[in-house]
Amino acid sequence: MKTWVAYIKNDNLPVGQASRLPEHSWRRFIPLIGQARRLSYWVGGCKIFSNNGSELKEFSEKRSRFFDNTLKGGDMKKLGYRLGILLMVLCWPAFVWAQVGEDYNLEIEGRYWKPKLDSTVKVVENAIGNEFKLVDDLGFDSQKDTGEVRLQIKFAKKHKFNFSYLPLKWDADKIVTRTIEFSGQTYTVGTRVQSKLELNFYKVGYEYDFLVGKIGFLGGAIDVLVANARVELKAPALAIDEKEDKTIPIPMIGLIGRVYPIKWVNLTAKVSGLPLGSYGHVIEAEASLNVNPIKYVGISGGYRYFETKFQYENNSLNFKLDGPFAALMIRF
User: Fold this and answer.
1) Within 10 Å of residue 239's Cβ, how many Cβ atoms?
2) Which CATH superfamily is domain 106-331 in?
3) Which sequence spans correspond to the domains of the chain?
4) How far is the CA of 22 from the CAs of 51, 73, 75, 128, 274, in angstroms?
5) Looking at the whole model, is its pTM more than 0.85?
6) Apex CA 329: angle with CA 328 and CA 331, to 5°?
7) Which of 31, 117, 239, 281 has its CA 20 to 30 A from that of 253?
């Protein structure tokens, strides 16, 4: 049976002589000879001979101090450990990234949103009503901190069910600097007006991703937005306490797309709405950057825009919210 002996050059020895290497430091490379060229680059100046003295292979003369010193010390185990750790560090993202993105059945999202309010309202009753601004005239906060809960059920590769709940609330207490007419009541200039606005948005929808690939997807969505609005304007000095409570379902249709530049990061955008012709429109749009450090957890940041414009006879509503958001997603 043919055996092999390995030698390595030693600059301190006379020409033609070499130092014999311990068997455990080279025998594992025998099956790789002629295949692992990069490995032979590392082990510079090493020759392997058969027991009859014939030379099988001479590795590259280019040297790496680290590998030469390791071989001269006969400590291949340390080299193996170091290479193993290096490979684990370099290859770890590939093992993790392959499991993130769209590999889930249930996603729960908690979102923080800081929208800016810009709204004008006009509600006429008995020919009494004028247009006023919620921020400038009633004193509502222009910026609002709010939270939102979202749920997505992925019951097939291309089919998703979505649900979300968004509560919003404003309170104001201001002496008005102009006369405000709202729903048949008049609040004269200099009157103290206590006002409240509560909005609850419930959205349910179905999403179908008609294009799905390794780099993302493109789909369509059909949603129903149920908006419940409670408005109160109270003027104690005038013995006025006007309240309105309305619930309106709004069907919406839209597009959603997602692109993965790398497997654990994606860019997502969605736009949906309802055109109402001369009566106005409803539009909602958002774009986000999503990072998935592990399979079951994702973090997101982006910008969201919501606008409702409505006009019917003498009544009108122009309601707009827009601002940045941050979110945490848990997947199962």
Assistant:
1) 7
2) OMPT-like (2.40.128.90)
3) 4-97, 106-331
4) 15, 9, 10, 102, 79
5) no
6) 155
7) 117
Q: Tell me how far apart the alpha carbons of residues 90 and 112 are, in angstroms, rounded to a whole number.
A: 35
Tell which wins on pLDDT, 240 or 5.
Answer: 240
Query: Beta strand 4-8 with 19-20: parallel, antiparallel or unpaired?
Result: antiparallel
Distance (Å) of CA 249 to CA 195, 227, 252, 314: 25, 6, 10, 22
Burial (Cβ within 10 Å: 0-12, 13-18, ≥19) of residue 84: exposed
pLDDT tens, 196-207? 999 999 999 999
